[in-house]
Amino acid sequence: MSRCDISIRYDQPDRTYRGGDTVSGEVHVQVNKDTTSNGIQLTHYWKTHGYGNTDSGAEKIEMLAGDSELRAGEDMAFPFSFVAECQPLTYRGHHINIDHYVKVAVDVPWAIDPKDEEEFILLPGKRPPEVTGQRDEIVVFTSKPSMQLPPGCLKAVYVFVAVAFFPLIPIVLLVLGAFWARKKMLASRLGEVELQTPHQVVGVGEDWPLELQFTPKKNCQINGIEVKIRCRESATSGSGTNKTTRHHTVFEKMHVLELAGEFTAGELFDQRYSVPFPETGAYSLNEGSNKIEWTVEVRVDIPAFPDWKSKQTVQVLPAEFLDEIAAQGDQRGSAQQSVPAVESPATAATAATPAAPATHDVADVSVVPEIEQPVTTSAPSPEVLELVQQISAADRFGSEREDLIAAWSDRELDVVVNVDRVTTTFGSTVDDAYQNGQTIQGTVAETEQAIEVLTRSAGSLEDLSRGDQWRSRVMVSKWDSLYNRLVALEVDSA
Fold first, then answer.
1. Coil, strand or helix: which one is 152?
2. Helix (H, G, I), strand (E, B) or coil at 369
3. Per 3-state DSSP, what percentage of the chain is helix, strand, and coil (rounded to 5)?
4. Backbone dihedral angles phi then psi of residue 390, each to the nearest 5 degrees
5. Residue 395, burial from CB neighbour count under 10 angstroms (0-12, 13-18, 19+)
6. Hey, what domains does the chain have and what are their CATH numbers?
7. For helices 400-408 and 382-393, what crossing angle results, to 10°?
8. How many CA atoms lie within 13 A of 279 on its CB side?
9. Given this model, what pLDDT does residue 205 score?
10. Are 47 and 54 in contact (CB under 8 A)?
11. Beta pairing, strands 22-31 & 4-10
12. What count of Cα atoms within 13 Å lies in the side-chain half-sphere of residue 136?
């Protein structure tokens, strides 16, 4: 039997907090044997776990009690509270997981310390002070500048390369020549290509504006213009010669900006696009051995010719962080900007493009405008309310809620959702029938239960805005444990 039994109880039954919230609760210590204690210590911190080496944050320590003699039968309670970190947020991925913990230990000299550790969930809240990305400065995508060295160092590098790698010089020259030839060939067709955006800080669910501009020097055909959005986990384990890195693609989607066509020499091509980013909890991360990286690659596909490509890293953040950066009120997931040289999606849709070849609009997946709509007063069915009650009564940190959803998965339910946002549905795990449809996020009417409903609709829900109610018939699909959210699929009406 342990000298002490320790339990940690949070003031929030679901152990869920947002960045900047006060995390509080009580620590209970039941003394089983007379024990000398050098103190009772509470620590809160975060750490990664998964394939990669463990990265962790600085441990924040609080003493609950000092030196004392603990007597068998004592039952002590210690309140605690601290301000939650703003990031990194709780994440459950393929190779990477991030969790936050509260740990309590009784310091027993010359013996194993009794201890307990309990996790809590951290969701987006207050913007971290280190998030300083700007959303109001034009960013032009260009090749990375070469590394600059002092003249003396540069000469030393030349000498070293000449001596050590003399046999490889012809190969190096051949490679450099190939790059030079490729650049000249592209310039002879498209001229100087300029790709720009008002920012490289992107919110989940946001439509990201791009502008592509060039003046062809010769008539030329293209197979199309595409943009690929990609999110990838990178987890590194070991070190030195034993270091290995595993990658996992969290999200990847190709969007066609332009179909096959022909450019006319001397005519300006100047087009603006709106590229949708998915709703996701995989925010940009760089914690040493564990990284989540988002990239955007734009490609002009030229037949029988080198393609023009530009690949850039972007920073993907929770919408809550962008609300503060943009200082534009409550516009979760949109953070609309007024930026010279890059028009908003709504403006771009109606703008005339002089001297440009025939183009094709990207699918309309813009953030839903907040249009005043009449609010209905319908209520969910008793079955839905019963399900919500069962979810609330179930333990969040076991498998009870997943088992509950599985038991309800073959039943059709009439649900009413208090709408928070409407987004376009993306994701590698989404059923093809719902891919590129629309997703309703909000809460079940007359409750506080979060819900996400995937629909096959490609635009019929565009008039919905925050605060509206939406009624439909659904089947529950799964339980999102990270966001404490019910996920359902809309059922086609008979």
1. helix
2. coil
3. 15, 40, 45
4. -65, -40
5. exposed
6. 4-123 (2.60.40.640), 139-350 (2.60.40.640), 382-490 (2.40.50)
7. 160
8. 23
9. 86
10. yes
11. antiparallel
12. 9
Find out whether 256 and 229 touch, Cβ atoms under 8 Å. Answer: no
In angstroms, the CA 169 to CA 149 distance is 21
**How far is Cα of residue 246 from the mean position of the Cα atoms in its chain?**
19
C-alpha to C-alpha distance for 344 and 338, rounded to whole angstroms:
7
pTM, rounded to two decimals: 0.64
What type of residue is 68?
Answer: S
> What's at 47, amino acid-wise?
K
Separation CA 93–CA 284 (nearest Å): 13
Distance of CA 325 to the CA centre of its chain: 17
The per-residue pLDDT for range 263-304, each reduced to its tens digit, is 888 889 888 898 889 888 899 999 989 999 999 999 988 887
Q: Using one digit for the tens of pLDDT, what is the confidence trace for 424-474?
A: 776 556 677 887 788 888 899 988 898 989 988 766 787 887 788 999 999
Could you identify the residue written with the tokens 């002879």? 188
CB-CB neighbours of 373 under 10 Å: 13
> Given this model, what pLDDT does residue 422 score?
80
For residue 347, the surrounding DSSP H or E stretch is helix 345-350
**Token pair of 244 as six digits:** 């290995």
| Rounded distance between C-alpha atoms, residue 113 and residue 129, angstroms | 36
Residue keyed to tokens 């953030």: 367
- Comparing CA positions, the residue from 95, 110, 88 lying closest to residue 35 is 110
Contact status, residue 177 vs residue 184, Cβ threshold 8 Å: no
Does residue 88 have a cis peptide bond before it, meaning omega lies within 30 degrees of 0? yes
Nearest to 251 by CA among 224, 226, 276: 276
List 80's β-bridge partners, or say none: 25
Confidence label for 25 from pLDDT (cuts 50, 70 and 90): very high
- Angle at the Cα of 420 (from 209 to 134), degrees rounded to 5? 35
CA distances from 163 to 147, 154, 155 (A): 21, 14, 12
Phi, psi angle pair for 34, to nearest 5°: -55, 130
C-alpha 215/C-alpha 265 separation (Å) is 7
